[in-house]
Amino acid sequence: MFYSLRHYLESVERLGLWLKEEKKSVEKAKRQAGKSVEQDRVTIEILTAEKMRSYENYVNGEISRDGFMAEKRRLDGKIATLKERIEKIEDNVPEPTAVDGEVETVIEENGRIGNMDKLTQEMADAFIENVYIHAGGRMEIVFKGQDKVTQMCERLLGESVEITEGRARVIKPEE
Questions:
Q1: 8 A C-beta contact, residue 15 and residue 156
Q2: Phi/psi of residue 142, each to 5°?
Q3: Residue 123 burial by Cβ neighbours in a 10 Å radius (0-12, 13-18, 19+)
Q4: Looking at residue 63, what is its pLDDT?
Q5: Furthest-apart CA pair in the chain: how many Å?
Q6: Are the C-beta atoms of 78 and 85 separated by less than 8 Å?
Q7: pLDDT in tens, 144-157
Q8: Nearest to 123 by CA among 99, 143, 139, 103
Q9: Is 29 exposed, middle or buried (0-12, 13-18, 19+ CB in 10 A)?
Q10: What would the pLDDT profile of 36-93 be if each residue is shown by its tens digit?
């Protein structure tokens, strides 16, 4: 039973590490997007001020109406392009993978007590939902969050966690 739990927790650990790395990556992408958006907004303010100066020059008779309208169209085009870029950046900012509360609890508990050398009552309480003993001595262990952890491992890590007859094994994809 301990070895099954150990294999299960190894997958939980890999999943936790993957999610942690993804979170760092998402935070970095959000910071970069935020900087880009801020730079574009500053540029829009500068272009808007330039448009106002152009209007003032027109009002003061320093440029013709046609000259002002051409400059206004040019600046409005640049501003529109920047606004579109801001919208695209904001729409494409990545979000971290949603983690079910049960999976999150299993990951946290694994970090706290999952690396012990033998099965303890604390580990059993934290990770084992049920143990079924069938006729002929066949044992079935149901780990907490097993289905959700298995689904996330398959989806995110590309590996399956197969738990049968009291044994757990990780099936990695062909490389």
A1: yes
A2: -110, 115
A3: buried
A4: 95
A5: 100
A6: no
A7: 877 788 778 777 77
A8: 143
A9: middle
A10: 999 999 999 999 999 999 999 999 999 999 999 999 999 999 999 999 999 999 999 8
Phi, psi dihedral angles at 158 (to 5 degrees) = 70, 25
**Alpha-carbon gap, residue 172 to 18, rounded angstroms:** 15
User: Is 173 in a helix, a strand, or coil?
Assistant: coil
Alpha helices in the chain (DSSP H): 2-59, 65-91, 101-113, 121-127, 146-152
Q: What is the pLDDT of residue 168?
A: 52
Residue 105 · residue 114 · CB < 8 Å: no
Residue 11, CB-side half-sphere exposure with 13 Å CA sphere = 32
- What is the pLDDT of the chain when averaged over all its residues? 84
Average pLDDT of 29-34?
94
Alpha-carbon distance values, 20 to 24, 35, 114, 115 (Å): 6, 23, 17, 18
The secondary structure of residue 136, as a DSSP letter, is: G
Half-sphere exposure of 82 (CA within 13 A, CB side): 19
Backbone angles phi, psi at 164, to 5 degrees: -140, 145
Pick from 17-31, 71-85, 120-134 the range whose average pLDDT is largest.
Answer: 71-85
- Distance (Å, rounded) from C-alpha 153 to C-alpha 79? 45
